[in-house]
């Protein structure tokens, strides 16, 4: 059972929880199901990537093909999730910019008036 505590400023997706048997605070990432005792930081997550790459190299050197496949799958899954999160942020920024541009354009009675008052924007290419 996961007991949620009031969150401090944690990285997105992380929750601060308490282990019911020990009473210790730990951190849980819902999407990846990763748990850790230390507060997750950008630096610690970057270290996790370096550690995963080091494990991958060690497995490859020892010809442990099964471990190499597992590590590659885990690294790829993480990269896909990160790319998806970035794509979502990019899409939201473009959507916000389009809404702002549409609102700006709607202030003018005609396209001619719009372009007179907005000289730094290129015209739409229809």
TrEMBL record:
Residues 81-115 have a biased composition (Basic and acidic residues). Residues 1-23, 81-126 are annotated as: Disordered. Residues 8-42 form the WW domain. It comes from the Eukaryota. CDD domains: WW (cd00201). SUPFAM superfamilies: WW domain. InterPro entries: WW_dom (IPR001202), WW_dom_sf (IPR036020). PROSITE patterns: WW_DOMAIN_1, WW_DOMAIN_2. This is WW domain-containing protein.
